[in-house]
Amino acid sequence: MKFMMFVCTDTEPETDESQLPDIEQWVEQNDAAGRRLTGDQLVPPASATTVRVRGGELLLTDGPFAETKEVIVGFDLLECADLDEAIEVARAHPMAYAGRLELRPYHQQ
Predict the structure, then answer these.
(1) pTM of the model
(2) pLDDT, position 109
C-alpha cells in the first residue's frame, strides 16, 4: 500500500532532543528497504500559490489555502504492507518527535 506521509511542524515538540533519531539514517534505512519511494522538504508556506477555478475564471492567491500554526514542511511517499508498518516507519522519523506526521493511504480502486 502506498501512503503519503505529510511532515508537519508542531507547537508542542518533544522537549528531550536527545531522543531525536537521525534523519540521514532514517532515509538510508527506508530507502534500502524499499519503503520510502521519494520524499523532500518544502519551502516555507509564504512561497505557496493557491489555485482555484470559479465560473471558468482562474483565481490565484499568494500563500497557503489555510492559515494554521502548524505547517507542512515536507513529505515522504511510503510503500508499506499496511498501516501498522507505515506507523512503525513514521514512529522512527525525527519529525515524529520534533513535529507531527500525517499518514494518508492512496485511494485504492
Answers:
(1) 0.88
(2) 78
